[in-house]
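Hello again, I could really use a second opinion on something today. I've been staring at a protein lately and its backbone has me curious. You're getting the sequence in one-letter code plus the fold written as tokens. I'd be grateful if you could look everything over and explain what you see. No rush at all, and the record is pasted right below:
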Amino acid sequence: MTFDFGHDVLNEIPERIFCLAEKSIISANRHATYLGPGIEHWPAMSVLNASHACELFIKASIATHHPLLIFKDAFNFSPDEANGLSLENIIAKGRSHDFANLPKIYWAVTGKSLNRPDLFEDMRQTRNALQHFVEPEHKDLSELTLRFIYEVVDPLINSDFGIHALEYYEDINDGYDYTVDQLIKHEIEFSMPSNFCEGEVSWDEALADVNATYREWFHGAFLKATGTPLKSENSTCPH
């Protein structure tokens, strides 16, 4: 990312935020995908990580228009302070917008709305509950996180940065195999990169258990992303 906001410190802010967002979504994908003995806390962590990733990606997008727009008190800064501007005094003087208000700020700055405002609000409330040490009962937190990442965050970052949430994974050996398996299981649509391919998990087996509408969407999305129809011989990743 290259910007010219008239000051080196301001020019650095969008990419700094973006890099932190990338780290958060990597953790969110992993924590929402896996569950087992010893990692029972991961679904709750996935909610916190995904919310943080969303907050940072929205702020990164806003900051590409101007970094000071991420602050609710942007008018506390003035051109007269430019010579002494530093990240430290920006952090000390500025208060960034609350998570709840970010969709409105994002719309005001970019003219675009987030997908699924109802899901954003559900995630916001769930995050708040967890932050106050109350884990919601009878709610699948892993599914909530996956839906939030791929129905809210993924369209945002695909539109604004040309990237795919699926490509942010922690385990190099597994890649996105098991995340895709979970997305298919819950019939969640997602953006596919042009080199999207099958690994250890059989898509045929996973898709056999979903409804025809989702199966048709998956085949169509694969064709649109890769330029080839979905067949077992052309969907497998080369090893």
In short: The chain has a mean pLDDT of 90.
